[in-house]
């Protein structure tokens, strides 16, 4: 590829959620890169009304006038013909939601690169941001890698780390990593092109023995286990905020358990010896205290069903009448009803 071609490197972008939209936005603003088309998931029903909504990547692509493709499958002959017709230099993938078949991976003139929100080989899979929080990792980052047939197993072109703060949630990390991913994919594409010209392009193979996996989250994972140490409960709440949301349950007006979604709070003092995990300890400095295995966990914000989110004092005043004597919200004591 000569210098003139390098200045006009062409890209077909694959992505779906808000994370992907931020990556696409960064590519859009790079004057030396040209996005030819955007491939995203078909519009899916969502919300209570099950109304079909476009993906975040599609909405951005529409606002910028990009050609949009929404195939149900990349294995169809129609999809292959369309993607091959672009004769793109690169396919760039960021949280697309489907694996690219080997035939598709071989289509770009130069390469197929993926933007992944972890420091590979750690946390391969669908939920790397949440996995980092659940594991209590102190660092995370972005990896730009060459796509391979195996999940997130390709060699690494570029990688950048960032610290995880004690109060970071899946939402705050998502936003930071999306911004970082946008900057890094632009840098990676430029590094790739200059490396070709200089003969210095190199990739680093992953150490597959160190790989961990982050499967897709489910709503059922939101149930809080107060038997665990408070630091693990804190990590759980951070990882599942805002979706699917961590929760416990209390008896409702008809004695049936009601799900209470909670926002991340903070770790309190050690609980007295013999305190059962899950015991409601009352209000401590305006926060609802619940016993964990070792310490109290202090909640500031709670969201009962059919109500708006409220602070701990409003929740305690409004719902304490449903607490039985020696109230306990541990899963081993309460059956949850969605």
Biggest pleated-sheet summary: 7 strands, mixed
* Residues in β-strands, percent: 25-35%
If helices are DSSP runs of H or I spanning 4 or more residues, what is the number of helices?
Answer: 9
Rg measurement, Å? 23 Å
Q: What's the helix-strand series?
A: HEHEEEHEHEHEEHEEHEHEEEEEEEEH
Number of strands: 19
Helix content: 25-40%
Low-confidence sequence ranges? 1-6, 333-338
- Give the overall form: elongated
Instruction: Please indicate the count of domains.
Output: 2
Reading off the top of the CATH hierarchy, the class of the largest domain is best stated as Alpha Beta
Q: Quick one: CATH superfamily of the largest domain?
A: Formyl transferase, N-terminal domain
* CATH topology group of the largest domain: Rossmann fold
Strand order of the largest sheet: 5-2-1-6-7-9-10
Structural class: alpha/beta
CATH architectural type of the largest domain: 3-Layer(aba) Sandwich
Summed over residues and divided by their number, the pLDDT gives a mean of 92
Terminal residue distance: 57 Å
């Amino acid at each position: 590829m000569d210098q003139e071609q390098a200045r006009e490197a062409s890209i077909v972008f694959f992505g779906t959620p808000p994370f992907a939209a931020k990556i696409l936005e960064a590519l859009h603003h790079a004057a030396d890169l040209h996005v030819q088309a955007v491939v995203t998931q078909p519009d899916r029903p969502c919300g209570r009304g099950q109304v079909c909504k476009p993906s975040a990547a599609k909405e951005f692509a529409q606002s910028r006038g990009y050609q949009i493709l929404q195939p149900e499958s990349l294995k169809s002959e129609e999809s292959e013909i369309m993607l091959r017709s672009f004769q793109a230099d690169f396919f760039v993938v960021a949280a697309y939601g489907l694996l690219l078949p080997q035939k598709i991976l071989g289509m770009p003139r130069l390469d197929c690169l993926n933007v992944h929100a972890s420091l590979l080989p750690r946390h391969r899979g669908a939920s790397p941001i949440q996995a980092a929080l659940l594991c209590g990792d102190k660092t995370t980052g972005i990896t730009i890698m060459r796509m391979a047939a195996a999940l997130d197993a390709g060699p690494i072109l570029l990688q950048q780390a960032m610290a995880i703060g004690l109060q970071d949630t899946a939402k705050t990390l998502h936003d930071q990593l999306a911004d970082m991913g946008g900057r890094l994919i632009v840098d990676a594409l430029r590094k790739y092109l200059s490396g070709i010209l200089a003969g210095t392009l190199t990739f680093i193979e992953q150490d597959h023995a160190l790989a961990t996996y982050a499967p897709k989250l489910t709503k059922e994972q939101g149930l809080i286990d107060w038997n665990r140490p408070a630091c693990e409960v804190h990590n759980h709440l951070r990882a599942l905020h805002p979706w699917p949301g961590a929760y416990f349950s209390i008896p409702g007006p008809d004695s049936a358990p009601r799900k209470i979604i909670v926002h991340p709070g903070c770790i309190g003092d050690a609980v007295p010896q013999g305190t059962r995990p899950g015991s409601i300890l009352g209000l401590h400095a305006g926060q609802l205290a619940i016993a964990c295995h070792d310490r109290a966990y202090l909640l500031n914000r709670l969201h009962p069903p059919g109500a708006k989110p409220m602070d701990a004092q409003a929740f305690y005043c409004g719902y304490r009448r449903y607490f039985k004597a020696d109230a306990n919200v541990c899963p081993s004591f309460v059956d949850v009803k969605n």
